[in-house]
Amino acid sequence: YRLSAQEHVFLFMPHHIVWDGWSFDLLYEELAALYPAALDKRPATLSLPPVSYVDFAHWHHGWMASEACQQQVAYWKTKFAGVQVPRSMPTDRARQSGMTGEGAVEWVRIDTELTEALRQRAQDQGLTLNMLVMGVYAALMSQAIGSDTIVLGVPVRGRLSTEVESVMGFFNNLLPVPLTLDSTQPLAAWLQQVKRDMLDAFAHQDVPFERLVTEPEVAASANKVGLYQSLFSFQDARARQRNWGPLQHSSVLVMQKGATEDFGLWLMEVPGGLEGGINYNADVFDALTAQVFRERLLGLLRRVAQTPHLSVSDLLAQPGADALAFAAWLQSHAPTRAAAQGATAQAGAAPARKVGQLGVAQARMAEVWAGLLGVNARDIGLADNFFDLGGNSLLVMQAVAEAERVLGLQLDPRRFVYEPLGQLVPADVAPVVAQAGAASAATQGLARIWAELLGVSTQQIESGDNFFDLGGNSLLVMRAVSEAQQQLGLDTDPRRYVYETLQQLSDGARPAAAPVVVSGTGGAALVAAEAEGGTAASSASGGLLSRVFGRLGRRS
Predict the structure, then answer these.
(1) What is the CB neighbour count within 10 angstroms for residue 548?
(2) To 5 degrees, how large is the angle CA 408–CA 409–CA 413?
(3) What is the predicted pLDDT for the residue at 549?
(4) Pairing of strands 525-528, 2-4
(5) Composition of the chain by helix, strand, coil, percent to 5
(6) What is the pLDDT at residue 99?
(7) Helical (H) or strand (E) element with 274
(8) Which residue, 50, 330, 448, 514, has fewest beta-carbon neighbours within 10 Å?
(9) Cα–Cα dist 415/429, whole Å
(10) Which residues contact 319 (CB under 8 A, 6 or more apart)?
């Protein structure tokens, strides 16, 4: 963006699925070498990384089947099996259908003087600044939800090997760290407990978050309140180069308008102290709530810097303007907190059967959710939300594919964030009835197509096999979709190939429209089916691949 002849803004927006914060540091380093080299018309001196992201992915795929992975999974299962079910954070407004997903931020600024005072307090106790701030924030959130147990979602870099430190890509993971607060203990003892819990979590950080939520012990804790009640992200100081040759630059704070969590705090070390923000879901929280929490956090941190020898309860009871505003917020949300307390107590009792309240299709969808989330379908009711039960974005995509397969419903994945089961699946939907004969023929035909594309024998492909696990990739998926449509008349959403087996794909595929033969370039014949709401392609340039991508665009 050109602001003037000598001032510009460079906006670089990668998708988080392929990029993390560490990759930005690498980008800064490389541009610091590339930019002046381009001006001087000379080659840049950049060394190649020792490994590639593909190397890491291959290693991690193998690690997931190892005993070391199982040991880490066992740690998390034991950890959550012994944790009291926490309460959800009271919101300013109830969740409604048709929510916007809009997010907002209240900026947090901690000056150099306070930052250094807190750093000294942390060092006196053998802590990092990260651990100290997390302990204070956890105490604040524990008081806010009215529960001694709080689970914080803590992002980690995931770059435990030096070989991957120079590789751009996505290595991050999210750790759900449960903390149990005894407010009568000295603040120093509480912070030491936070240190132990953080170090234990960091020692078991390789298991992907989406893998953890499939474990019953972990998923049970997420029932009704989500797997974590707040996000806490602390990014250490980064020595990013502020000059690329003669080009000087500084950062511009830009905040996305979406909300990936209901409530969360992120902080980053900068030359002048700490900067960050409280992100919140603007559909359920007001800006005033975020402001109250910001001032309360800053007030608590100032007290820790001035009088570090308090007990946790004394720290939380210290007077001040922030304490008065926070007490008023607690009072205004007392009914919501009481309801949450009752829900938590009920969650510990024997669950009542809810599926009886559901329609046939809704009960089928509840079974799909239960299988993905590792919970009992009997515990899922019409008012339950997929994410509140422990779901995540990757599991949503599987749920979308299953909804199309077993119910014939094409659902927008974004609806899963805000809508409960009863709104996602109408009561009068009739589940799809598979035709055994057609499914068998479709399975055999699809196996033959896979064998040709993957260079294997059909005898090597079983009904429970996944296309990617057999060696497929995204481009081959496009060809498989095209061939299945041409040879078998099956119309399949390419996204289903990521998660479904051969049998599931052939059972759930819809017959395509009547094939139409159209001429292609060089006299070649091309078979195309009518696009939904459109007309048959008239040339090779408007063929199946274009229309497959078009369908993806219409559904996203």
Answers:
(1) 20
(2) 140
(3) 36
(4) unpaired
(5) 50, 15, 40
(6) 66
(7) strand 273-281
(8) 514
(9) 17
(10) none
Interval 389-420: pLDDT, tens: 877 777 888 888 888 887 878 888 888 877 88
How far apart are alpha carbons 271 and 401 in whole angstroms? 47
Q: List 419's β-bridge partners, or say none.
A: none
Cα dist. 90→229, 290, 539 in Å?
Answer: 10, 13, 57
Alpha-carbon dihedral sign for residues 91, 94, 100, 101? positive
pLDDT in tens, 456-467: 877 778 877 888
pLDDT beneath 50: ranges in the chain: 343-356, 434-439, 511-556
Strand partners, 173: 156
CA pair distance 71, 78, nearest whole angstrom: 11
The whole-number pLDDT of residue 466 equals 84
| Encoded tokens for 520 | 């292609």
Specify burial of residue 523 (Cβ count, 10 A radius: 0-12, 13-18, 19+). exposed
Report how far apart the first and last C-alpha atoms of the chain are (Å, whole number): 29
State residue 328's pLDDT score.
Answer: 92
pLDDT of residue 251: 76
CA separation for the pair 225, 387 (Å, rounded): 9
Q: Give DSSP secondary structure letters for 166-195.
A: T--S---EEEEEEEE--TTSBHHHHHHHHH
